[in-house]
């Protein structure tokens, strides 16, 4: 069911929380909402859920206005960060709640509840367990099963993974994607985490001060953001050495200062490209062109980020960031050359680095 948001506007005490937001979201699509704190994301979700009333504009499902339907009659379900489970019910009864309201009973209800629990990776040992006796990740799995049990047309997710630690978040993110795609369920998901948004969404809406700043495919917005604010929400940017543009840290490569451009045989997937030999032990997947832009600098701090390394390079009194795939063969204080593809430079009118 296509979800249409038309010119949604909402103020609190004379202050605009949402200003004229309009977008069409196709059935089965996964849309992530990003934006600075207070930019109106939760307000939008609450309006779609029927928990808040807009001042102007309309919410439609397949062309049918939802505006006069109370929250409990809208074909949507909201998944919150704090799970919002029934604390006095065991897992199976939490999941059975919505199907019971729909008149499902007996063996059919039991089978449906078991299938839903299995779908989210909770086995039969959880059936009678109350939420208080479950971990945060298990509670969020249960909340997802309960959400699916009501067979909503759209799932609204307000930072559902924010309270979980990083490995759990990654696992649940994959579960969310698999379960919702399998069902063709439309999702509207608020998140602060660019990695989460880039991994889950096939469409990204970026908000600032209640306005829709950008809308598009996540990878395209990451590569070509329309403004510095959008670029920064999706990942770090670092000034272009000696220029007035910006670069993503993974596009700034480190090279030994004394070597001319040469054929780097370690880049097996790009055998015909002439690149600068880079100083990381593992080659990056981002190739350089045959004539990269270059600048000389001095290595500052070097940090291991787990799966990547981050190197600060000082050039002309400014610090630039380079993120590479392996441990760099350089130490603080060492002279380096940084190289980058001029085509990767991000430029924003009126926002020079
Ligand atoms: N019930 C309310 N009463 C008064 N002001 C509110 C209310 N709800 C939200 N606001 C204000 O509306 C604006 C948008 O809030 P909203 O919660 O939608 O932002 P958000 O983008 O979800 O922020 P966060 O990322 O911090 O959750 C903020 O300025 C907020 O203070």
TrEMBL record:
Mind telling me which InterPro entries this protein's record contains?
A: AAA+_ATPase (IPR003593), ABC_SmlMolc_Importer (IPR050093), ABC_transporter-like_ATP-bd (IPR003439), ABC_transporter-like_CS (IPR017871), Mo/tungstate-bd_C_term_dom (IPR008995), P-loop_NTPase (IPR027417), Transp-assoc_OB_typ2 (IPR013611)
Gene3D superfamilies per record: P-loop containing nucleotide triphosphate hydrolases
The record places domain ABC transporter at 3-234
Q: What GO annotations for molecular function exist for this entry?
A: ATP binding
Q: Which SUPFAM superfamilies match?
A: MOP-like (SSF50331), P-loop containing nucleoside triphosphate hydrolases (SSF52540)
This protein's UniProt keywords? ATP-binding, Nucleotide-binding, Transport
PANTHER family reported in the protein's UniProt record: SPERMIDINE/PUTRESCINE IMPORT ATP-BINDING PROTEIN POTA (PTHR42781), SPERMIDINE_PUTRESCINE IMPORT ATP-BINDING PROTEIN POTA (PTHR42781:SF4)
* Protein name as it appears in the record: ABC transporter ATP-binding protein
């Amino acid at each position: 069911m296509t979800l249409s948001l038309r010119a949604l506007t909402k103020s609190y005490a004379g202050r605009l929380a949402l200003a004229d937001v309009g977008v069409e979201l196709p059935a089965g699509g996964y849309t992530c909402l990003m934006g600075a704190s207070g930019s109106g994301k939760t307000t939008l979700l609450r309006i779609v859920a029927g928990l808040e009333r807009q001042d102007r504009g309309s919410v439609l499902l397949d062309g049918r206005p939802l505006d006069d339907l109370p929250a409990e009659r809208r074909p949507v379900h909201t998944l919150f960060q704090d799970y919002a489970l029934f604390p006095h019910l065991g897992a199976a009864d939490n999941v059975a709640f919505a199907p019971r309201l729909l008149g499902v009973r007996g063996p059919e209800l039991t089978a449906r509840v078991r299938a839903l629990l299995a779908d989210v990776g909770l086995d039969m040992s959880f059936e009678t367990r109350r939420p208080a006796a479950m971990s945060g990740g298990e509670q969020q799995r249960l909340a997802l099963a309960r959400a699916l049990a009501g067979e909503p047309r759209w799932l609204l997710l307000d930072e559902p993974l924010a309270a979980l630690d990083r490995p759990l978040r990654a696992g649940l993110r994959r579960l969310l994607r698999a379960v919702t795609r399998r069902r063709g369920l439309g999702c509207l998901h608020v998140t602060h985490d660019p990695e989460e948004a880039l991994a889950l969404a096939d469409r990204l809406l970026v908000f600032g001060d209640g306005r829709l700043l950008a809308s598009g495919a996540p990878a395209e917005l990451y590569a070509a953001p329309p403004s510095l604010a959008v670029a920064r929400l999706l990942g770090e940017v670092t000034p272009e050495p000696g220029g007035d543009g910006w670069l993503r840290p993974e596009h700034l490569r480190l090279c030994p200062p004394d070597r001319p451009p040469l054929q780097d045989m370690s880049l097996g997937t790009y055998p015909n490209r002439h690149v600068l030999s880079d100083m990381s032990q593992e080659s990056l997947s981002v190739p350089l062109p045959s004539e990269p832009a270059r600048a000389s600098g001095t290595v500052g701090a070097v940090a291991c980020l787990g799966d990547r390394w981050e190197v600060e390079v000082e050039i002309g009194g400014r610090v630039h960031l380079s993120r590479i795939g392996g441990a760099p063969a350089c130490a603080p204080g060492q002279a380096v050359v940084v190289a980058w593809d001029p085509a990767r430079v991000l430029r924003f009118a009126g926002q020079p680095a």
